[in-house]
């Protein structure tokens, strides 16, 4: 396994019952690269992303993150035992933005950003707040930090979701059709944030129907 790749899938299959969703998937992504995945609905694009960050287990093949094997299976059985601690340490290098924003409705924008760094990475609250405000400024929503998600437009909520993923300081960002739930006039503001991330050198895998990206 070459260390030049931060993400790699080798001979990956994923089967749900009798439905083979992924068949012999092979690809590699280098640091600072942006990979766009385009295909018809139901072709397994979202499942592929979920297999990368361990939300779904592959049926067969190998998955590497940052040069480390995170999953290896043969016919649905573990081919190599990988400790949950190692798996969690590798998965935390991935940030993911979903089609739906999945913000906590009972928490403010700022609270949505600070909860994971504080709970998972044990970052002190004052540091988490400082970092989160900086990220909100980056996505153009610093003035919305005390608002609740219900007060935001769809585009604003998705930008908060991007900032929330970035708050965990991931090495790689996964985007699962991040504009598909937005009205057409709101798509541009989200794509603008994503394009800036790409310019800043973030490694990204983007499942999208937006050919303009």
Summarize the structure.
By secondary structure, the chain is of the alpha/beta class. It contains 6 helices and 9 strands, in the order E-E-E-H-E-E-E-H-E-H-H-H-E-H-E.
Low-confidence stretches: none
CATH class of the largest domain: Alpha Beta
Count of discrete alpha- or pi-helical segments spanning 4 or more residues: 6
Name of the CATH architecture of the largest domain: 3-Layer(aba) Sandwich
Blueprint (SSEs and pairs):
Blueprint: E1 5-16, E2 19-30, E3 34-37, H1 45-52, E4 60-65, E5 68-74, E6 77-78, H2 84-91, E7 94-97, H3 109-120, H4 125-138, H5 154-166, E8 172-176, H6 184-199, E9 203-207
Parallel strand pairs: 3-9, 7-8, 8-9
Antiparallel strand pairs: 1-2, 1-4, 4-5, 5-6
Helix pairs in contact: 3-4, 3-5, 4-5, 5-6
Report what the structure shows.
The protein has about 210 residues and is an alpha/beta fold. Strand 5 and strand 6 form a beta hairpin. The protein has a five-stranded antiparallel beta sheet with strand order 2-1-4-5-6. Strands 3-9-8-7 form a four-stranded parallel beta sheet, sandwiched between helices. The mean pLDDT is about 90. The protein contains six helices and nine strands.
Task: Using brief descriptors, characterize the structure shown.
9 strands, 2 domains, globular, 6 helices, five-stranded antiparallel β-sheet, Rossmann fold, 213 residues, alpha/beta
């Amino acid at each position: 396994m070459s260390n030049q790749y931060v993400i790699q899938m080798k001979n990956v299959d994923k089967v749900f019952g009798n439905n083979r969703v992924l068949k012999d998937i092979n690809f590699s992504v280098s640091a600072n690269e942006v990979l766009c995945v385009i295909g018809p609905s139901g072709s397994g694009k979202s499942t592929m992303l979920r297999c990368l960050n361990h939300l779904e287990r592959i049926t067969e093949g190998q998955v590497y993150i940052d040069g480390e094997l995170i999953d290896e299976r043969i016919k649905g059985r573990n081919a190599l035992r990988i400790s949950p601690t190692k798996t969690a340490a590798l998965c935390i290098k991935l940030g993911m933005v979903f089609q739906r924003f999945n913000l906590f409705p009972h928490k403010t924008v700022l609270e949505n950003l600070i909860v994971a760094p504080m709970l998972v990475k044990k970052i002190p609250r004052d540091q988490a707040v400082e970092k989160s405000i900086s990220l909100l400024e980056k996505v153009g929503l610093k003035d919305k930090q005390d608002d609740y998600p219900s007060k935001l437009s769809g585009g604003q909520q998705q930008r908060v979701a991007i900032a929330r993923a970035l708050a965990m300081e991931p090495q790689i960002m996964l985007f699962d059709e991040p504009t598909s739930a937005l009205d057409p006039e709101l798509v541009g503001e989200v794509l603008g944030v994503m394009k800036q991330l790409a310019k800043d050198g973030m490694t990204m895998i983007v499942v999208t129907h937006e050919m303009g990206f």
